[in-house]
Structures
1.
Amino acid sequence: MSEQPRKPSEEYIVIRHRPGYRVRRTAILLTFSVVAAILGYVTGMAQGGFRFSTAEESRERLSSQVERLRDENREMSQRLVNLERGRAVDKQALNQSRRTIVGLETELSSLQSELVFYKNIMAPSDSSRGLQIDRLTMRNAGSPGAFDFMVVLVQRGDNKSYLSGYAEVNVVGLQGDERESIALRDLSDDIENTDIKLRFRYFQEVKGRLQLPEGFEPLHVEVMAKRDGSGSAQVERTFDWEELTEN
Protein backbone atom coordinates (compact mmCIF):
# COMPACT_ATOMS: atom_id res chain seq x y z
CA MET A 1 0.00 0.00 0.00
CA SER A 2 1.45 3.23 -1.16
CA GLU A 3 1.97 6.18 1.19
CA GLN A 4 -0.18 9.26 0.82
CA PRO A 5 1.69 12.58 0.50
CA ARG A 6 1.69 14.85 3.57
CA LYS A 7 -0.23 18.04 3.54
CA PRO A 8 1.76 21.09 4.28
CA SER A 9 1.40 22.13 7.82
CA GLU A 10 -1.10 24.97 8.40
CA GLU A 11 0.29 28.43 9.44
CA TYR A 12 -1.13 30.25 12.45
CA ILE A 13 -0.81 34.01 13.47
CA VAL A 14 -0.38 34.72 17.06
CA ILE A 15 -1.99 38.00 18.32
CA ARG A 16 -1.05 39.34 21.67
CA HIS A 17 -4.04 39.93 23.80
CA ARG A 18 -4.15 43.53 25.13
CA PRO A 19 -6.97 44.06 27.50
CA GLY A 20 -8.57 47.66 27.22
CA TYR A 21 -6.82 48.67 23.96
CA ARG A 22 -9.99 49.29 21.97
CA VAL A 23 -11.50 51.28 24.77
CA ARG A 24 -8.44 53.52 25.01
CA ARG A 25 -8.36 54.06 21.23
CA THR A 26 -12.04 54.96 21.14
CA ALA A 27 -11.58 57.37 24.03
CA ILE A 28 -8.63 59.06 22.31
CA LEU A 29 -10.58 59.49 19.06
CA LEU A 30 -13.55 60.84 20.95
CA THR A 31 -11.30 63.27 22.82
CA PHE A 32 -9.74 64.54 19.59
CA SER A 33 -13.20 64.98 18.07
CA VAL A 34 -14.42 66.98 21.06
CA VAL A 35 -11.28 69.13 21.10
CA ALA A 36 -11.58 69.75 17.36
CA ALA A 37 -15.23 70.69 17.77
CA ILE A 38 -14.41 73.06 20.62
CA LEU A 39 -11.56 74.64 18.66
CA GLY A 40 -13.84 75.08 15.64
CA TYR A 41 -16.55 76.65 17.75
CA VAL A 42 -14.09 79.01 19.44
CA THR A 43 -12.54 79.94 16.12
CA GLY A 44 -15.97 80.55 14.60
CA MET A 45 -17.03 82.69 17.52
CA ALA A 46 -13.82 84.66 17.32
CA GLN A 47 -14.25 85.26 13.60
CA GLY A 48 -17.93 86.07 14.06
CA GLY A 49 -17.06 88.52 16.80
CA PHE A 50 -14.49 90.16 14.55
CA ARG A 51 -16.97 90.43 11.73
CA PHE A 52 -19.60 91.83 14.11
CA SER A 53 -17.13 94.34 15.49
CA THR A 54 -16.09 95.37 11.98
CA ALA A 55 -19.72 95.70 10.85
CA GLU A 56 -20.54 97.77 13.94
CA GLU A 57 -17.62 100.10 13.28
CA SER A 58 -18.66 100.43 9.62
CA ARG A 59 -22.24 101.19 10.64
CA GLU A 60 -21.10 103.90 13.05
CA ARG A 61 -18.78 105.37 10.42
CA LEU A 62 -21.54 105.39 7.79
CA SER A 63 -24.00 106.90 10.27
CA SER A 64 -21.50 109.66 10.98
CA GLN A 65 -21.04 110.31 7.26
CA VAL A 66 -24.81 110.36 6.69
CA GLU A 67 -25.28 112.87 9.50
CA ARG A 68 -22.47 115.04 8.13
CA LEU A 69 -24.02 114.94 4.64
CA ARG A 70 -27.39 115.86 6.11
CA ASP A 71 -25.83 118.86 7.85
CA GLU A 72 -24.12 119.92 4.61
CA ASN A 73 -27.39 119.49 2.72
CA ARG A 74 -29.26 121.65 5.24
CA GLU A 75 -26.52 124.28 5.05
CA MET A 76 -26.56 124.30 1.24
CA SER A 77 -30.38 124.47 1.22
CA GLN A 78 -30.28 127.46 3.56
CA ARG A 79 -27.67 129.13 1.37
CA LEU A 80 -29.88 128.56 -1.67
CA VAL A 81 -32.89 130.04 0.15
CA ASN A 82 -30.81 133.05 1.20
CA LEU A 83 -29.58 133.54 -2.35
CA GLU A 84 -33.12 133.31 -3.74
CA ARG A 85 -34.36 135.78 -1.15
CA GLY A 86 -31.46 138.10 -1.86
CA ARG A 87 -32.07 137.91 -5.58
CA ALA A 88 -35.79 138.59 -5.07
CA VAL A 89 -34.99 141.57 -2.85
CA ASP A 90 -32.45 142.87 -5.37
CA LYS A 91 -34.95 142.46 -8.21
CA GLN A 92 -37.66 144.21 -6.21
CA ALA A 93 -35.28 147.04 -5.31
CA LEU A 94 -34.21 147.33 -8.95
CA ASN A 95 -37.81 147.50 -10.16
CA GLN A 96 -38.63 150.07 -7.50
CA SER A 97 -35.61 152.14 -8.53
CA ARG A 98 -36.69 151.98 -12.16
CA ARG A 99 -40.21 153.08 -11.27
CA THR A 100 -38.79 155.90 -9.18
CA ILE A 101 -36.52 157.01 -12.04
CA VAL A 102 -39.42 156.91 -14.51
CA GLY A 103 -41.54 158.92 -12.09
CA LEU A 104 -38.79 161.48 -11.58
CA GLU A 105 -38.18 161.75 -15.32
CA THR A 106 -41.91 162.27 -15.89
CA GLU A 107 -42.03 164.89 -13.15
CA LEU A 108 -38.94 166.60 -14.56
CA SER A 109 -40.47 166.66 -18.04
CA SER A 110 -43.66 168.12 -16.61
CA LEU A 111 -41.73 170.78 -14.71
CA GLN A 112 -39.73 171.66 -17.82
CA SER A 113 -42.95 171.98 -19.82
CA GLU A 114 -44.42 174.23 -17.14
CA LEU A 115 -41.23 176.30 -17.10
CA VAL A 116 -41.42 176.78 -20.86
CA PHE A 117 -45.12 177.55 -20.52
CA TYR A 118 -44.59 180.31 -17.92
CA LYS A 119 -41.55 181.61 -19.76
CA ASN A 120 -43.59 182.03 -22.93
CA ILE A 121 -46.27 183.84 -20.95
CA MET A 122 -43.88 186.24 -19.23
CA ALA A 123 -41.38 186.76 -22.06
CA PRO A 124 -42.96 185.81 -25.39
CA SER A 125 -41.63 186.58 -28.82
CA ASP A 126 -43.04 189.60 -30.61
CA SER A 127 -45.13 187.40 -32.90
CA SER A 128 -46.92 185.57 -30.08
CA ARG A 129 -48.09 188.35 -27.79
CA GLY A 130 -51.63 188.76 -26.51
CA LEU A 131 -54.37 186.13 -26.40
CA GLN A 132 -53.20 182.71 -27.56
CA ILE A 133 -54.61 179.16 -27.69
CA ASP A 134 -51.78 177.26 -26.03
CA ARG A 135 -52.94 173.63 -26.23
CA LEU A 136 -55.80 171.13 -26.26
CA THR A 137 -55.57 167.70 -24.63
CA MET A 138 -57.99 164.80 -25.08
CA ARG A 139 -57.77 161.58 -23.04
CA ASN A 140 -59.95 158.48 -23.19
CA ALA A 141 -62.25 158.40 -20.15
CA GLY A 142 -62.61 154.62 -20.14
CA SER A 143 -66.04 154.22 -21.72
CA PRO A 144 -66.94 154.21 -25.44
CA GLY A 145 -67.03 157.73 -26.90
CA ALA A 146 -66.15 159.43 -23.59
CA PHE A 147 -63.13 161.75 -23.36
CA ASP A 148 -61.66 164.13 -20.80
CA PHE A 149 -60.64 167.41 -22.45
CA MET A 150 -58.71 170.52 -21.46
CA VAL A 151 -58.22 173.73 -23.45
CA VAL A 152 -55.53 176.14 -22.20
CA LEU A 153 -55.67 179.80 -23.25
CA VAL A 154 -52.93 182.28 -22.29
CA GLN A 155 -52.21 186.00 -22.33
CA ARG A 156 -48.59 186.52 -23.32
CA GLY A 157 -46.59 189.67 -22.85
CA ASP A 158 -48.50 192.39 -21.03
CA ASN A 159 -50.01 190.66 -17.99
CA LYS A 160 -50.69 193.75 -15.89
CA SER A 161 -54.41 193.70 -16.59
CA TYR A 162 -57.01 190.96 -16.81
CA LEU A 163 -58.13 189.71 -20.21
CA SER A 164 -61.85 189.25 -20.88
CA GLY A 165 -63.42 187.51 -23.85
CA TYR A 166 -64.90 184.22 -24.96
CA ALA A 167 -63.97 180.98 -26.71
CA GLU A 168 -65.77 178.47 -28.88
CA VAL A 169 -64.91 174.78 -29.29
CA ASN A 170 -66.44 172.59 -31.99
CA VAL A 171 -65.85 168.93 -32.84
CA VAL A 172 -66.03 168.32 -36.58
CA GLY A 173 -66.68 164.85 -37.97
CA LEU A 174 -68.92 162.53 -39.96
CA GLN A 175 -72.36 161.30 -38.96
CA GLY A 176 -72.94 158.64 -41.56
CA ASP A 177 -72.14 160.36 -44.85
CA GLU A 178 -72.90 163.85 -43.55
CA ARG A 179 -70.21 166.22 -42.32
CA GLU A 180 -71.25 167.75 -39.02
CA SER A 181 -69.85 170.30 -36.55
CA ILE A 182 -71.00 169.85 -32.94
CA ALA A 183 -70.49 172.55 -30.30
CA LEU A 184 -68.72 171.47 -27.13
CA ARG A 185 -71.76 172.61 -25.15
CA ASP A 186 -73.82 169.87 -26.86
CA LEU A 187 -71.27 167.19 -25.99
CA SER A 188 -70.39 168.05 -22.38
CA ASP A 189 -72.46 168.71 -19.28
CA ASP A 190 -69.55 170.76 -17.93
CA ILE A 191 -70.02 173.50 -20.55
CA GLU A 192 -73.15 175.64 -20.24
CA ASN A 193 -72.88 177.97 -23.25
CA THR A 194 -71.56 177.92 -26.78
CA ASP A 195 -69.55 181.03 -25.96
CA ILE A 196 -67.23 180.05 -23.11
CA LYS A 197 -66.50 183.09 -20.93
CA LEU A 198 -62.86 184.04 -20.46
CA ARG A 199 -61.34 186.20 -17.74
CA PHE A 200 -57.75 185.73 -16.66
CA ARG A 201 -54.41 187.47 -16.26
CA TYR A 202 -51.94 184.75 -17.20
CA PHE A 203 -53.88 181.68 -18.37
CA GLN A 204 -57.23 179.91 -18.11
CA GLU A 205 -58.11 176.22 -18.38
CA VAL A 206 -61.41 175.04 -19.84
CA LYS A 207 -61.87 171.38 -18.98
CA GLY A 208 -64.47 168.67 -18.52
CA ARG A 209 -65.74 165.44 -20.06
CA LEU A 210 -67.48 165.03 -23.41
CA GLN A 211 -69.53 162.19 -24.86
CA LEU A 212 -69.57 161.64 -28.61
CA PRO A 213 -72.88 160.64 -30.25
CA GLU A 214 -73.19 157.01 -31.29
CA GLY A 215 -72.00 156.54 -34.87
CA PHE A 216 -70.20 159.90 -34.95
CA GLU A 217 -66.66 159.78 -36.35
CA PRO A 218 -64.60 162.80 -35.19
CA LEU A 219 -62.03 164.28 -37.58
CA HIS A 220 -60.69 167.37 -35.83
CA VAL A 221 -61.44 169.99 -33.17
CA GLU A 222 -61.70 173.70 -33.95
CA VAL A 223 -60.93 176.21 -31.18
CA MET A 224 -61.58 179.94 -31.55
CA ALA A 225 -60.94 182.65 -28.94
CA LYS A 226 -61.63 186.40 -29.04
CA ARG A 227 -60.87 189.22 -26.65
CA ASP A 228 -63.57 191.72 -25.74
CA GLY A 229 -63.37 195.13 -27.35
CA SER A 230 -63.97 196.58 -30.75
CA GLY A 231 -61.35 195.77 -33.32
CA SER A 232 -59.86 192.90 -31.29
CA ALA A 233 -58.60 190.10 -33.50
CA GLN A 234 -59.61 186.53 -32.85
CA VAL A 235 -57.25 183.53 -32.78
CA GLU A 236 -58.01 180.06 -34.11
CA ARG A 237 -56.38 176.62 -33.98
CA THR A 238 -57.35 173.25 -35.43
CA PHE A 239 -56.32 170.00 -33.71
CA ASP A 240 -56.32 166.65 -35.51
CA TRP A 241 -58.41 164.08 -33.61
CA GLU A 242 -56.06 161.16 -34.19
CA GLU A 243 -53.10 163.16 -32.88
CA LEU A 244 -55.12 164.21 -29.84
CA THR A 245 -56.10 160.65 -28.93
CA GLU A 246 -53.08 158.61 -30.03
CA ASN A 247 -51.57 158.44 -26.52
2.
Amino acid sequence: MFAGKTTRLIERVREAEASGRRTVVVKSAVDTRYAVDHVVTHDGVRVLCVPLSRLGDLRAALGEAEYAATQVVAVDEAQFIGDLREAVVQATEADGKTLFVAGLSGDFRRDNFGQISQLLALADNVEKLSGRCTFCEQQGRRSPSHFTLRIAASTQQELVGGAEAYAPVCREHYVQLSRVREHGAPTGDTTEAEEEPAQQAAA
Protein backbone atom coordinates (compact mmCIF):
# COMPACT_ATOMS: atom_id res chain seq x y z
CA MET A 1 0.00 0.00 0.00
CA PHE A 2 0.93 3.68 -0.31
CA ALA A 3 2.98 2.89 -3.41
CA GLY A 4 1.02 5.09 -5.82
CA LYS A 5 -1.05 2.34 -7.48
CA THR A 6 -4.15 4.49 -7.93
CA THR A 7 -2.09 7.49 -9.04
CA ARG A 8 -0.38 5.36 -11.68
CA LEU A 9 -3.70 3.90 -12.80
CA ILE A 10 -5.16 7.39 -13.25
CA GLU A 11 -2.08 8.37 -15.28
CA ARG A 12 -2.70 5.42 -17.60
CA VAL A 13 -6.36 6.41 -17.92
CA ARG A 14 -5.47 9.99 -18.84
CA GLU A 15 -2.92 8.78 -21.39
CA ALA A 16 -5.59 6.60 -23.00
CA GLU A 17 -8.12 9.43 -23.03
CA ALA A 18 -5.56 11.84 -24.49
CA SER A 19 -5.07 9.43 -27.38
CA GLY A 20 -8.81 9.47 -28.05
CA ARG A 21 -9.67 6.08 -26.58
CA ARG A 22 -12.99 5.72 -24.78
CA THR A 23 -12.27 4.73 -21.19
CA VAL A 24 -14.20 3.63 -18.12
CA VAL A 25 -12.83 3.28 -14.59
CA VAL A 26 -14.04 0.55 -12.25
CA LYS A 27 -13.32 -0.05 -8.59
CA SER A 28 -14.40 -2.65 -6.08
CA ALA A 29 -17.67 -1.72 -4.41
CA VAL A 30 -16.02 -2.73 -1.13
CA ASP A 31 -13.84 0.39 -1.19
CA THR A 32 -15.94 3.28 0.12
CA ARG A 33 -13.15 5.03 2.06
CA TYR A 34 -13.21 8.36 0.22
CA ALA A 35 -16.22 8.08 -2.11
CA VAL A 36 -18.66 5.50 -3.44
CA ASP A 37 -18.52 6.47 -7.12
CA HIS A 38 -15.00 7.87 -7.47
CA VAL A 39 -11.51 6.42 -7.46
CA VAL A 40 -9.54 8.63 -5.07
CA THR A 41 -5.80 8.74 -4.45
CA HIS A 42 -4.38 9.20 -0.95
CA ASP A 43 -3.60 12.82 -1.84
CA GLY A 44 -7.15 13.54 -3.00
CA VAL A 45 -7.13 13.21 -6.81
CA ARG A 46 -10.58 11.96 -7.86
CA VAL A 47 -11.87 10.21 -11.00
CA LEU A 48 -15.46 9.13 -11.60
CA CYS A 49 -15.87 5.35 -11.62
CA VAL A 50 -18.32 2.46 -11.67
CA PRO A 51 -18.30 0.55 -8.36
CA LEU A 52 -18.73 -3.20 -8.88
CA SER A 53 -18.38 -6.41 -6.89
CA ARG A 54 -17.93 -8.44 -10.08
CA LEU A 55 -16.13 -7.10 -13.13
CA GLY A 56 -18.34 -9.27 -15.32
CA ASP A 57 -21.26 -7.01 -14.36
CA LEU A 58 -19.74 -4.04 -16.20
CA ARG A 59 -21.66 -4.72 -19.41
CA ALA A 60 -24.98 -4.58 -17.56
CA ALA A 61 -23.91 -1.50 -15.58
CA LEU A 62 -22.97 0.46 -18.72
CA GLY A 63 -25.53 -0.94 -21.14
CA GLU A 64 -24.73 -2.77 -24.37
CA ALA A 65 -24.06 0.31 -26.51
CA GLU A 66 -21.77 2.02 -24.00
CA TYR A 67 -19.91 -1.20 -23.25
CA ALA A 68 -19.36 -1.87 -26.94
CA ALA A 69 -17.98 1.66 -27.42
CA THR A 70 -15.59 1.38 -24.46
CA GLN A 71 -12.04 0.61 -25.52
CA VAL A 72 -10.16 0.77 -22.22
CA VAL A 73 -11.24 -0.48 -18.79
CA ALA A 74 -9.20 0.52 -15.73
CA VAL A 75 -9.77 -1.45 -12.52
CA ASP A 76 -8.68 -0.24 -9.08
CA GLU A 77 -8.49 -2.30 -5.86
CA ALA A 78 -8.73 -5.40 -8.03
CA GLN A 79 -7.82 -7.77 -5.20
CA PHE A 80 -11.43 -7.41 -4.02
CA ILE A 81 -12.97 -8.38 -7.40
CA GLY A 82 -14.27 -11.95 -7.12
CA ASP A 83 -14.40 -12.87 -10.82
CA LEU A 84 -11.24 -11.00 -11.78
CA ARG A 85 -9.42 -13.61 -13.88
CA GLU A 86 -12.49 -14.79 -15.76
CA ALA A 87 -13.70 -11.25 -16.45
CA VAL A 88 -10.27 -10.03 -17.60
CA VAL A 89 -10.01 -12.89 -20.10
CA GLN A 90 -13.53 -12.18 -21.36
CA ALA A 91 -12.95 -8.44 -21.70
CA THR A 92 -9.56 -8.66 -23.40
CA GLU A 93 -9.75 -11.78 -25.54
CA ALA A 94 -13.45 -11.95 -26.41
CA ASP A 95 -14.53 -8.31 -26.24
CA GLY A 96 -11.33 -6.66 -27.50
CA LYS A 97 -10.81 -4.28 -24.56
CA THR A 98 -7.52 -3.06 -23.12
CA LEU A 99 -7.45 -3.47 -19.35
CA PHE A 100 -5.32 -1.71 -16.76
CA VAL A 101 -5.59 -3.56 -13.45
CA ALA A 102 -4.24 -2.16 -10.17
CA GLY A 103 -4.21 -3.98 -6.87
CA LEU A 104 -2.22 -5.61 -4.10
CA SER A 105 -0.33 -8.78 -4.94
CA GLY A 106 -0.23 -9.86 -1.30
CA ASP A 107 -2.03 -9.25 1.98
CA PHE A 108 -0.60 -8.19 5.34
CA ARG A 109 0.53 -11.79 5.95
CA ARG A 110 2.26 -11.83 2.53
CA ASP A 111 -0.23 -14.40 1.26
CA ASN A 112 -2.00 -14.20 -2.11
CA PHE A 113 -4.74 -11.59 -2.14
CA GLY A 114 -7.71 -12.30 -4.37
CA GLN A 115 -6.91 -13.27 -7.97
CA ILE A 116 -4.21 -10.69 -8.73
CA SER A 117 -1.46 -13.31 -8.94
CA GLN A 118 -3.50 -15.25 -11.52
CA LEU A 119 -3.17 -12.33 -13.93
CA LEU A 120 0.61 -12.52 -14.11
CA ALA A 121 0.56 -15.27 -16.72
CA LEU A 122 -2.05 -13.37 -18.75
CA ALA A 123 -0.66 -9.84 -18.68
CA ASP A 124 1.18 -8.10 -21.51
CA ASN A 125 3.03 -6.01 -18.95
CA VAL A 126 3.44 -6.03 -15.16
CA GLU A 127 4.57 -2.95 -13.26
CA LYS A 128 5.55 -3.29 -9.61
CA LEU A 129 5.50 -0.20 -7.44
CA SER A 130 6.89 0.48 -3.98
CA GLY A 131 6.55 3.32 -1.51
CA ARG A 132 8.78 4.32 1.39
CA CYS A 133 9.15 2.44 4.66
CA THR A 134 7.38 4.39 7.39
CA PHE A 135 9.77 3.34 10.14
CA CYS A 136 12.97 3.87 8.17
CA GLU A 137 11.85 7.42 7.43
CA GLN A 138 11.27 7.97 11.16
CA GLN A 139 14.92 6.96 11.63
CA GLY A 140 16.13 9.33 8.93
CA ARG A 141 16.63 6.60 6.32
CA ARG A 142 15.00 6.09 2.93
CA SER A 143 14.12 2.48 2.16
CA PRO A 144 11.58 1.12 -0.33
CA SER A 145 8.48 -0.49 1.16
CA HIS A 146 7.84 -3.89 -0.40
CA PHE A 147 5.39 -5.06 2.25
CA THR A 148 2.34 -3.88 4.17
CA LEU A 149 2.23 -4.07 7.97
CA ARG A 150 -1.22 -4.10 9.52
CA ILE A 151 -1.31 -1.91 12.60
CA ALA A 152 -5.04 -2.33 13.24
CA ALA A 153 -6.14 -5.12 15.57
CA SER A 154 -8.27 -7.02 13.04
CA THR A 155 -6.93 -10.28 11.59
CA GLN A 156 -9.46 -10.72 8.77
CA GLN A 157 -7.93 -10.61 5.30
CA GLU A 158 -10.24 -7.99 3.83
CA LEU A 159 -10.01 -4.82 5.86
CA VAL A 160 -10.32 -1.65 3.80
CA GLY A 161 -8.34 1.14 5.39
CA GLY A 162 -5.60 3.71 5.12
CA ALA A 163 -2.86 4.97 7.41
CA GLU A 164 -4.97 4.18 10.47
CA ALA A 165 -4.83 0.46 9.63
CA TYR A 166 -1.67 -0.12 7.59
CA ALA A 167 1.93 1.02 7.25
CA PRO A 168 4.25 0.50 4.26
CA VAL A 169 7.43 -1.22 5.45
CA CYS A 170 10.74 -2.67 4.28
CA ARG A 171 11.63 -6.33 4.85
CA GLU A 172 13.60 -5.59 8.02
CA HIS A 173 10.76 -3.77 9.72
CA TYR A 174 8.12 -6.19 8.45
CA VAL A 175 9.95 -9.14 10.02
CA GLN A 176 10.79 -7.36 13.27
CA LEU A 177 7.42 -5.74 13.88
CA SER A 178 5.37 -8.75 12.81
CA ARG A 179 7.21 -10.90 15.33
CA VAL A 180 6.82 -8.27 18.03
CA ARG A 181 3.10 -8.26 17.40
CA GLU A 182 2.74 -12.03 17.26
CA HIS A 183 5.19 -13.09 19.96
CA GLY A 184 5.82 -10.00 22.04
CA ALA A 185 9.60 -9.93 21.49
CA PRO A 186 11.72 -8.62 18.61
CA THR A 187 14.32 -10.67 16.80
CA GLY A 188 17.14 -9.76 14.48
CA ASP A 189 16.65 -12.79 12.25
CA THR A 190 15.53 -12.31 8.66
CA THR A 191 14.16 -14.92 6.30
CA GLU A 192 14.02 -15.24 2.55
CA ALA A 193 10.51 -14.76 1.23
CA GLU A 194 8.75 -13.61 -1.87
CA GLU A 195 8.22 -9.88 -1.77
CA GLU A 196 4.62 -8.73 -2.06
CA PRO A 197 4.84 -5.24 -3.55
CA ALA A 198 1.97 -3.19 -4.76
CA GLN A 199 1.39 -4.45 -8.24
CA GLN A 200 -0.24 -3.27 -11.40
CA ALA A 201 -0.89 -5.56 -14.33
CA ALA A 202 -1.95 -4.47 -17.79
CA ALA A 203 -3.62 -7.04 -19.99
